[in-house]
Every structure is written in structure tokens, then in C-alpha cells.
Amino acid sequence: MKKILFTLFAFAIYKAATYIHIPLINPDVISQFFDDADGGIVGIANAFTGNALRNYSIIALGIGPYITASIVIQLLQMDIVPILKEWQEEGEVGKRKINQLTRYLAIGLAFVQALAMTYGFRLTGNSIFDIGVENVNFLTYTYLAIVMTAGSAFLLWMADQITNKGIGNGTSMIIVAGIISTMPGMITSLVQEFVTAPESDAGTYGIFAIVVLLYIFVIFFVTVMQSANRKIPIQYSNRPTGSRFQGRSDSNIPLKINSAGVIPVIFAVTLLSIPTTIMNFIPDLQSTTLGLWLNEMFNYQRPFGYVVYIGLIFVFAFFYAFVQINPDKIAKNLQTQNAYIPGVRPGVDTENYISRLLFKITVIGASYLVLIASLPIFATMIFKLPAYVQIGGTSLLIVVGVAIETTKQIKTQTQEQKYSGFIK
Q1: Which of 71, 129, 344, 406 would bridge with 168, disulfide CB 3.0–4.6 Å?
Q2: What is the pLDDT of residues 16-38, one digit of tens each?
Q3: Summary count for the chain: helices (H), strands (E)
Q4: What is the pLDDT of residues 75-113, one digit of tens each?
């Protein structure tokens, strides 16, 4: 109970910080920008920060720089930077070194991102600074970037406190807190659009009921798929003859259907949204031939952009799945432990078997990600939903995934306490 209360207290501090605007900035201009350019990477980034980006608060960057730094470090550990590979194999000491490097990289990325973002908002043609602020120069942007970087550093510290004194992984819980804090606004927008609007009738009431039921069904479906896995049975050849455990295959290797998580969707949206986001910062480019071509190519709500979007999700899903689950490493570990998969020879045959199985379940997992990522697009088109209302999408994947992991952690901790009391 103390851990839960501490986590809720941290959430309250986080939400309060989203309303503390950074100095010298007129937040109304930033909010208008989000009204004009809703969706894409801008909308996703704002959802992850709990509207802190829209309010342009001191924590406007959220925990995003740390997530980016973590992904970069994880990719560099794949024999790209030898010293990182060595740290990965050093156990707890190496883990601390990697975590420290990740934090340093996150702070650097936060500063660069804050600097570029503030200058980019000024390129929209509107003055983002308060009335009376004059002589805006590089030092001004540097000062604002330092303030926003300090906000991200504060969130990293608070995430560590949640991990140590609260429940769940602090970084994931911060992201979930930001997403959940926007849900009341989403529900309010939905009610105002279909229930309390002056032109509401039986038809709009029916749409409201269908949307709510669809949302509940999607949550149930995502929960099932996030928990689904394919178990590979394992047997050990070093058990003595006549043992009552001989021949049993209680041991197994669980392969998650969606082993890549939400990363493929985030990567796909990020790559596609970079050109369109640049166009939002440069209004004069939108009406040109180049702007129209870029919008058709990279806007995943357009037919061609949607095809590219699906392709990127599949590519990243397979790439990340085989990064997370290395068939060669699993095969070697099984051979070292005198274990084998029934009906499969150790060594290369085991590696090929795991690779084929991983490929098959990744096809299912990638198709599932495409379905969930496409739901907001088609639901908005079919039901004419407000831009603020989304059924499915990246946010729901993150919330459900973190909820499942946190539930498992709470269950494990309560069981440990029960066993401790029984021993005493």
C-alpha cells in the first residue's frame, strides 16, 4: 500500500509539473499550433507527455529523450561498439555503466531536442515569446533549452524513485501517467460530440454506444494478445535413468507473439512524420508541389503513405524480434545446459527450428500491430471522431503492456511477503 501511495503521489507531482510553463514563452501560441497540426509524431509526443508539450511546460520533453537514448544504446550493443558489448557481458557492473551512459546521452539529446524544438516553433511564423521579450538570440534559446533539459532530468530522477520506492518500472509508469491523464479529456470530447451537442439524436447516441463498446473490445483484445506466447518444450538429457522427472517437459522457452512490443509502431510513425512535421514548422512549404508530394508520400492517412506505414511496421517488427530473441544464442545455451527440444537435433537444427518458429509468430505479431495501429485511422474516418479521440493506437499498446507487467510485479511481491511470513 505504501508503494502504491508513493506512486500516486509521484503521478500528482508529474501532473502538476505539466502546468508549469517555461519562462518567456506564450503557451497559447503553442496550443494553437497543436490545434492546427493534430496527429502524427506531434500528437503522439504530446500524448506521451500528458499535454505537457502542448502546454510547453518545464517537462515538455517528457521521458522521450531517455527512451531514444535507451534504444540507441541497445542497438549499439549489437557488436557495433565493442566496449558496449563487453559491458553487457560484465553483469551488474556493466549494467550500471550502461545505465549511466544512457542517462548522459539522454541529457545531451534533451538539450539538442529542446533547442531545435523552440527554434522550430518560431519558424511557424508566430511569435512564441511573451509580449515585451526583446533581443531574442542564441543565449535565449540556450537558456530555454537548459530549463527544459532540467525538467527531463527531474523526470528521470522521479522515475528512479518510482522504481525503487513505488510499483512498476519508473520510466514506463511515467509514460503511462501521461497517457492516462489525457483520457478524461478524450471521454469529454466524445460525449460533447455525440451526446450533449445540440444536434444530437438517436443516431449519434448509437455511434457513441458503438465507439464505447469497440473501445472496450479493443482493450480486451490487446490484453489477450500482449499476454499470448508460444511455448517451446525443453527436455534435459542429464537426468538420471529411472528418475520420476525423466521424460517430463515442464521446462519451456516462451516466445511472445508480440516480442517487439510497441517499438515498431513508434519507429514507423517517427520516420513517416519527420517530413510532415518539418512542413508544419514551415507553412510556406505546404502549398508547394514538393509539400503536396511529401504529404502524399509520408502521411500515413493517405493511401500510399499508409502502404509505406504497414511495410515499416513489418520491417521493424521482424528486426526487433530477432534482436530481442537471438536463435543462435538460445541454441548454444541449450547445448551448454545439455537440454534439447524434443524431435530436434541440438546445434544448427535447433537454431533453424527456433528461427522458423520466431518468423511465423512474428508474422502474427506484426499483423496484430498493423491492426491496432490502423484502428484510429479507420475509426476516425467511419465514425467522424474528433481528432482528440483515438481507438487503439500506440498509447493503448503501451498502457496495456505496462499494466500487465506491473500486475505481475505486484503479484510476485505479495507472494514473496506471504512466503516470508509462513517461514517466520
Answers
A1: 406
A2: 998 888 888 887 877 777 766 55
A3: 18, 4
A4: 787 767 788 878 877 778 888 888 899 999 999 999 998
Q: How far is CA 270 from the centre of its chain?
A: 12
Q: Which residues contact 144 (CB under 8 A, 6 or more apart)?
A: 22, 23, 24, 25, 114, 118
Q: Which of the listed CATH numbers 1.10.3370.10, 1.20.1070.10, 3.40.50.880, 3.40.309.10 matches domain 183-424? A: 1.10.3370.10
Q: Model confidence at 125, in pLDDT bands (50, 70, 90)?
A: low
Q: With bands split at pLDDT 50, 70 and 90, how would you rate the model's confidence at 139?
A: confident
> Pick from 326, 346, 327: which is nearest to 336 by CA?
346
Q: Residue 177 — φ and ψ, nearest 5°?
A: -60, -40
Q: Give CATH for domain 1-181.
A: 1.10.3370.10
Structural contact between residues 113 and 65, judged by C-beta atoms closer than 8 angstroms: yes
| Per-residue pLDDT reduced to its tens digit, 262-311 | 888 877 877 777 776 666 666 666 667 776 777 777 777 778 888 888 99
What is the number of other CB atoms lying within 10 angstroms of the CB of residue 315?
A: 14
Residue 130 DSSP one-character state:
P
Spatial neighbors of 339 by CB under 8 A, at least 6 apart, are: 234, 235, 236, 237, 251
Separation CA 15–CA 11 (nearest Å): 6
User: What residue ranges do the domains of the chain occupy?
Assistant: 1-181, 183-424
Nearest to 397 by CA among 389, 405, 385, 388: 405
Please give the angle made by the CA atoms of 55, 159 and 147, to the nearest 5 degrees. Answer: 40
Task: Read off the pLDDT of each residue in 351-376 and give the average, rounded to a whole number.
Answer: 90
The contacts of residue 64 (CB under 8 Å, 6+ apart) are 45, 48, 49, 113, 152
In whole angstroms, what separates CA 268 from the centre of its chain?
12
Residue 186 CB neighbours (<10 A): 18
Bridge partners (DSSP) listed for residue 233: 252
pLDDT of residue 21: 87
| Intrachain domains 1-181 and 183-424 with the same fold | yes
**Residue 291: CB partners within 8 Å, gap ≥ 6?**
279, 285
Provide the strand spans (E) within 194-256: 229-233, 235-236, 252-256
